[in-house]
Each structure stands twice: as C-alpha cells, then as structure tokens.
Design goal:
The protein is of the alpha/beta class. Helix content is about 45%, strand content about 15%. The chain has a six-stranded mixed sheet, sandwiched between helices. The protein has a six-stranded parallel sheet with strand order 15-14-16-17-13-18, sandwiched between helices.
Length: about 900
Amino acid sequence: MEELAVSYQSEAQLERSMYEQLIRKGYDPVVLSDYDALVENFRQQVNKFNKKKLEDTPLSDEEFTRLMTRIDKKSIFESAKILRDKVILQRDDGSEVYLELFDTREWCKNLFQVTTQTTVEGKYVNRYDITLLINGLPVVQIELKRRGLDFKEAFNQIQRYRKHSYKGLYRYLQIFVISNGVDTKYFANSDSDILFSYTFFWSDEKNSRISNLSVFTDTFLEKCHMAKMIARYMVINESDKLLMVMRPYQVYAVESLVKRALETKNNGYIWHTTGSGKTLTSFKSSQILANEPHIKKVFFLVDRKDLDSQTIAEFDKFEKGSVDTTDNTNKLVEQIQDMTKPLILTTIQKMANAVKNPRYAAIMEAYQEERVIFIIDECHRSQFGDMHTAISRHFKNAQYFGFTGTPRFEENKSQDGRVTADLFEKCLHTYLIKDAINDGNVLGFSVEYHRTFNAELDEEDETRVEAINTEEVWFHEDRMKLVVENIVDNHERKSRSKGYTGIFTVQSIPMLIKYYDLFKSYNHSFKIAGIFTYGANEESEGRDEHSRDSLERMMTDYNGLFLTNYTTDTFSSYFSDVSKRIKSAQIDILLVVNMFLTGFDSKTLNTLYVDKNLKYHDLIQAYSRTNRVEKATKPYGNIVCYRHLKKKTDEAIRLFSQTDSTDDVLMRSYQEYLNEFHASLKKVRDMAATPSAVDELQREEDQKAYIESFRDLTKVLVKLQTFTEFTFSPEELNITRQEYEDYKSKYLMLYERMKKHVDKASILQDIDFALELMHTDRINVSYIMNLLKDIDFNDAEDVKKKVKFIEDELDRADNEELRLKVDLVKGFLQRVVPTLTNESSIDETYITYEEEEREKEIQSFAKEVALEAEFLKTYIQEYEYSNIIKQSEISDSVKGGLLKKRKFSKRIVDFIVENTKRFA
C-alpha cells in the first residue's frame, strides 16, 4: 500500500501543479464537488454571460428548467451543434430571448473556469482530474497519470468514464487531454468508439513536438487558444455524425494562408505530405476566407478525375451539398452569379470552360476587378498550369493558393518546365512525410524488391535497365506467372487473413488484362477485380479483343462475386462501387494502371504491388495509398516491387523529406526485425521461462511487466509476418508456434482475470492489452457495420442485394463476438433496415435497436424467473463494470426453497454472463 500511496501523491502533485498553472493563466478556480454543483454553476455562468440579453433579469427556475430541457440529454454530436448555435428561450412573460452558450467569433470574451476532482456518479462513482469550463459548460477534460506510466492508461480511463458517467452536461466536452507529465496528447470527443490513433501531439509552427505538460498548458491550453481551437479548428462532420479536431500543422497552415490572403495580394502554397488530411485543411481555409466580407468569391478547384464518390463524400462532411457533380458549366455560372454563395467548389475543367467560353464573358466581366481567391487541390498537377493564363485574363485581382503533398521542383518539373513556386510563389507551411511518420499521422513503408528475370545485369546501370524496358521482357508469360505466384502465395499473410486489401499497379492496359487472366487461371480464394478507362477509338490491331470488351468480362465476373449488375455503360457507378469495396476490404486485390493511385484514401488498403516504372511524385503518391493509420495490426504500408525501383524510391523519399536519409520513412529489414524479435523474446523468458511459469507471477507489477513484454513481442511478430521470407520456423524464431500460442493463452488469461477482479487500486485496470494484435478475424462487428453503411437505402434493389450479401457473410463468420450477435444483426437487417433512409445514422439506429432488444430480453427473463427486472439490471451492470457476480445476493432474491434457489440462481448467473457477452 505504501508504494501505491507514493504513486498517488505523485499524480496528485502533477494535478496540483497544472491546476495552479491554469489559474495563473487566467482561469477562474471553482469548486464543483458533484454534478449538482456543476449544473448550479452553469446556471450562474449562463446568466452572467448573457446578462445584457437577459436585461439583468436572471433566469427563473421555470426558465432554467426550459433551457435544460432544450440542451440537456443530447448526443455528443447534437450537443456540439447546440454549443455553437444560439438557443431560443421563451421567458415567463412570453417574450423570446436568444441565449449564447459560446461566443465562436470573439473567443477571448467567453468566461473561463477550472475545477478539479469533481465526483460524478453514473453506473459507478468516478472522480475527474481537471475540467476546463467555458460559460459554465465543461468543454475540456484532462486526465493525468504519474510520470513513468504509459499515458495510454489515461486514454483507457477516459474510455471507461465515457461509457459510465459522461452524461448530461458532460456531453458538451469537446476535447480530451491525456498526459503523464512527459508526454501529452489531445483528441476530440465522440458518440462512437475513439481509436488511440486519433490522439494527437501538439507542436510549434516548425513541427517540433510540444509534449511536456507544463509547456502544453502554456500554449495549447492558454484561454484564448483553447477557445479558438473549439470555435475555429474543430469540424462538425455531418455525414459521419462526429466531431473532428484539427492537428497542429493543419492549424498553422490555415493561419498562415489566411494571414497571407488578408494582408497581401501574393500567392502561396501549402506542402503537406499525402495522407496528412489536406482536404480538411484546404476546405477550412476556404470557409474562413469565404466569410470575409471584402472577398467576393472563393473558388475551390479540384481535378475532375479526383472528384469521385469519396471526394464528394469528404466535402459533404464539412458542408452538405457543397459539390456540384454535374458536367454542366451553366450550373457553375449560375453559382458565380449568385451573390449569396461566397464559396464555390468545382472542377478545374469546368472553370476553364467558363472562362474560355464567349457566351459567359459578360458574367465573368463583373468579377474582373473584384477580390477573388482560388484554392487549388493537388496543385502539382499540370492541368492547373495550363489554365492559369486563361483565368488570369478574367480575374485581375485573383489570388492563388495551392495544396500539394508532392510539389514540383527542378528534379521533377512539369513537362512544360514549370515548378510549383513559378505559379504559387512562396511555400507557406510544410509538413513532410518524415514529420507525419514521427507523429504517427501516417505510416512508413516496408519495401521489398523482387527480381523477376535472370539476365546478367548490373541493376545500378540505368542505361542497361532502361534498355530492357521492352514488352518482350516485361510481358513474358513465365515472368508474369512468377509475379502472380508470388502474390497468390503471400497475399493471405500480407493482408492479415484478408482483413486488409491490396492494389496491383501495372504499366499498361494490355498488361493488366493479361495479369487478370493469369490470376483467373490459378487456384486461390482471393476476390480479384480490375478497373481502367478504355479508349473509344483505340488501335486494336494484333489483339484478340478491344479493351472495352476485356473490361466488360471483368465486370461480369465482378457482378457474379458481389451480386451487382454493372456494364461499361455504367462505368461511373462501377468505379464508385469498387471504391467502397476496397474501403471495406471486400475486394482482395484490385488491378489498376493509374486509377486509385492519387487522392484515394482507404485505411484498409495496406499493400501495393508494383509492376511498372515510377519516380518522384508519381512514386510517392502511389506508395502513399498504403500509409493511412489504422490499428496496431497495420504497422506500415507494404510495397512489393517487381521492377528495380530502389534507386527511384530513395531519390523520391530524399526529395520529399528534404533529407539525405531514408531511414525515417522506410522500415527496417527483415533481419533487423528478427533481431528485435529475439531480444523481445528474451525479455518474455526472463519474466517467465516457460508459459506455465506465468502462473507463478503473483505480484501485479510482475504481471504487468509480462503483459507489456509479450505485447511488444507480438507487435514485432506482426511486422515480421508481412515479409515474404517469413515462416514460423522454430530454428529462426527460437520459439515454436505452440509455445508462442501457450504464452498468448497466459496473456489472455491475465486479461480475463483483470476483467473479473477490477479493483480501483489495480495497476492492470487501464493497461493497454492491444487485443486486436491477438486476433486476425476478418468478418467482425465493425466489418458488418461498414457493409451496412455502403447500402443505398433509396434503392430497394440495392437494399435487397446487400442485405442478402451481409446475411451470407454472417453465416460464415468465425469471430466470437460476432457469432454471439448474429441473430441480433439478422433481426436488425429484417426489421429495421427496410425502414432506413440515406440520412439515417447506422451506428445510432443499431445502438437504439440493441438497447431495445436487450430491454425486451431482460424483461422476459425476469418474468420467467419471477425476479424484479430492476434487480436483474443492477446485477448485470455490476458484472459489466467489475466482472463480479454476487451469487449470494442473487440467491437471496429468489423466492422459494433451497432446490429452487439453486436452480434459478444458476440460470440467472448464466443469463447475466450471456447477456453481457452479447450486448456489452
């Protein structure tokens, strides 16, 4: 107990220091011992903040009750919208007043408070470390762990609080902060699960990390800055019904761009690496500038080929209906004429047509001298350079701001000899791939190079390499078969048993068709698809079929796999469907030439196979399709090259990292990870020489050390398993598969024991067990929920087909968690799905359905065993939180003799366990 007391005091000291620092920073201290005190304080603050609007007459009891009815007990998403809006309240005399909960424009004028150790009772008693309040509403929650502890334990603690006691006004929490004094991160609140990968470090403008709690408090939690983050740099994502908070480099980029636009007439560009969230940054910049009264129009330009269903959905998240998807330039010109529409999102191609076409000249002339701003996504593309002159003729006072992950330099200048700075002048902010990897915002790459022919060749001799770039060599059937065999033999492991998906990019359409047919000739269980654009009048001499006919064949196969009905006449719909299925890992390998290699985001894409020559921006753009952060089971993007691209890879990484080293971006070799595995295994065996020795670890500190050692061992194993040369060889790994599985069983046993005996003083309570590393199930609950989100509920035929597909997937699921829910999900499919629309939130609807079904089940069983339903719910809640079942209490609550008590008690205990497994 003495050691625990020291630990507690250390944590308390950290909290006290931070609390005092916040008071020095201008926060008013307030003592809020419990939830009632929080509500009473909110009443006082809302009266004070709205004093002028209330004409010095504070809200009466009835008025405050009406206000609470309007704002209380909403979802986190709804609360976030209410916070940023004005609340109309009817006063007792019948008049109406517009109350403000938060000033989003002059954020420094809000009222700021800090409180500590508020005790809140939900299902259980929880005590919160530090809470920051704006106008009486809790908006930032800080959880601390003592120095030396993994601060992910603070993250797990918040997850428990969110589940058990963040109710009522605590739904207004916008941002969480977690720290152990040395490392500090922040993240947005959400109604759904929050992944640790969505927690961010703060940094300065030059991307130097600010992780020390004291410095973080001075910078990020400075009153005006904290309020500005909530007011300006959080995004309400309408389509996913969630809150997003911007990362530091996004904030600095927006601020530097807005400053340049408002203070100068000069252009500029933002260089943020691919995968770092440029869309959000660029759109937020557009929104802020569009609200400036002296700026007449902000045009956000994208390339037509990037305007797929994903990009449209991305922009719709930030501003519903902001994208005009038609090819009709008239619609764009109508928007230009509409003075109430300051922000227009359109394609480069339509804008080019609007400025060149004489019939629109009169309308365009009205803007010749006006202040307009063009924001160009992926500005390294040559298309914008081609139309820049035409735009400049029409818009004399235009300013241009570009966003790119791969700028044009002298080394990779465009065909007409231009570099990015020629058009956009100055780089306003950079966030390079090495920065993003260091921050955990994107993944690094593990690149394998395979020789696919045996010619005597010095592969460093570029002249010789280029000399063999002939169809004769690259199209040779034996060579292509070697490639297909390599993919078929290794993709199961690369994709973690098909939990992830791959893209195979090849040099031409004929090569793609040949590869597709070769894959079909092999015996495998992978779902392979192909996509490309065919030429209407292409040369077909010497070929057996036109490429359109080849694509038609691929679509027929695809229709058979997924119960769809696409043809080349419905190509855009096919494209959208392929995009969705790559994102939900339903397609195992997609064959492409150029499509999907730029601008396509998918967390489930983890492997790129390459049989084409790539360099500079094309190479980085293609590789970056695999580097989106997901779970611990995706440690990096796998790149498998069947061409000698090592030199080109190193050149591209050096150019876009602005460094002489590739070590920050490329992962280590198989041998280096193998050495790390051996070192991790030694640590495990030092803790427990054999799996059975784990049972002898009595002290919690020793159990924790074993958990952390075995978890680290498994993380290295996950990396090793992605390499082609990996086999579970006892000679190489120094451990048999059976011994590893036995160690894993002990690890899971400790996890189960921790769940059953949750003790407030237990150091295991919030430890990160990283259970996703221990399982490789593909068809799990989140997979099924993603399939549901892909349904077009306005199309009855699509609903019918997709529901049938999901039912088939459910029937072959082997994930334990999902097997328990199969009947539930099928009931949802049959009874609820037919009533949904595209506006429905799948997550919310399913949660409501589950809660209703659980309630029915509890009521029915309680009646069966003649037990009060409320008693039964109390026992279930106790078990859910602490894994404790109070058998003697249950037995006492059963009326009747000893035999009946024994029989019914066992049934009740079994029901509690099963019900919790199915629903919790």
